[in-house]
Write a structure and sequence with these properties.
By secondary structure, this protein is an alpha/beta fold. The protein folds into 2 domains: 18-43 and 268-360, Alpha-Beta Complex (Aspartate Aminotransferase, domain 1), CATH 3.90.1150; 46-264, 3-Layer(aba) Sandwich (Aspartate Aminotransferase, domain 2). It has 12 helices and 12 strands. The protein has helices at residues 18-25, 46-55, 65-78, 90-102, 118-125, 145-151, 173-182, 244-247, 255-264, 268-288, 308-317, 341-360, and strands at 33-35, 85-88, 108-113, 129-134, 157-161, 188-192, 214-219, 232-235, 292-293, 300-304, 320-324, 333-337. A 7-stranded mixed beta sheet has the order 2-8-7-6-5-3-4, sandwiched between helices. Strands 1-11-12-10-9 form a 5-stranded mixed beta sheet. α4 (90-102) packs across α5 (118-125) and α11 (308-317) crosses α12 (341-360). The chain binds pyridoxal-5'-phosphate (PLP). Pyridoxal-5'-phosphate is lined by residues 90-92, 116, 161, 165, 192, 194, 219, 221-222, 227, 232. Pyridoxal-5'-phosphate binds at residues 90-92, 116, 161, 165, 192, 194, 219, 221-222, 227, 232.
Length: 361
Amino acid sequence: MQPRDLSAHTPYVPGRGVEEVARDLGMDPESLTKLSSNENPHGPSPAAVDVLHEYASRVHVYPKASHTDLTDRLATEWDLTPGQVWVSAGADGSLDYLSRAVLEPGDRVLVPDPGFSYYGMTARYHHGTVASYPLSKADDFAQTADRVIDAYDGERIVYVTTPHNPTGSEMPHEELIALLDRVDDHTLVVADEAYGEYSTRESAATLLNAFDNLAVTRTFSKAYGLAGLRIGYALVPSEWADVYARVNTPFAANELACRAATAALTDDGHLEKTVETARWARDYLQERLDAHTWESAGNFVLCDVGDASAVADASQRAGVIVRDCSSFGLPACIRVSTGTREGTERAVEVLNRVTREVAEA
Ligand SMILES: *Cc1c(COP(=O)(O)O)cnc(C)c1O
């Protein structure tokens, strides 16, 4: 017996983990600086950790109140109705719910290239097909309505990542509005704001009441430091109030994740510290790395190092794990997440050295 034809499906390639690399190289995990997955170098909010301890002994019950509390809190925060907030297992879970809500078999989605691979994966899981619009190195991966519309052919979902992973570029508000105006009525534009907290721009969520073809996705994995709990959400059009109940997996997010996320939302200090460090580290990487770098609004910087795979390997052996962007179709680039001050300084020193060594080899 065989599963369905999965030949068009490609596995997600995550940044490499500390334990995995340490085991491979026979190194002490403590000696490694992981800057490959855009995680929060300060860890989770202490308020979230307290709540995890508090609720650990109560995980024998299904999450109900905790899910409602988080949804209500987010609705207040974004000035939306609770029906417009779809809590999920990571923002990836929200992408699945949007696919389920929108796609009929054979429907097409439009995704950025380079871009986040899960957009295409979730479309294929839901029997959809995938087309892409190019973001180009030549114009610093600029994101404009024209760029998207040139490739647009009536797709059911159009994905915009802002700030964009892995390049760090943003789609300005005016451009997003132009895009929303120009796509067909049946097209949902998804603004993925996984890195929204690091940007100084207004969230696309402020447009939700003006456009009925917009959804915004957000996550607790990055700025809130809760990647391991898998918790995120989508903000959806007001007309969709009864849709979530028809598409979600029962108890969409777990008890501890919902409680911790709600607590993290109250900890402004931790978020501020996180964003401040990321901005400092972004500037530091851009100023001090010898390689060409791009402006970034996220907690990472894309760098042109020539041979990404060789540089990422050498850097890892020297204790700094970065993301080789070959799998994004950028074989000359690595993506370096912003670390603590110490971690970022170490990354610059190691990357400048190994890039020189690789070039000379
Ligand atoms: C990290 C990331 C997400 C969501 O990650 P989750 O951990 O599933 O919340 C979504 N989009 C982009 C572009 C990301 O980089």
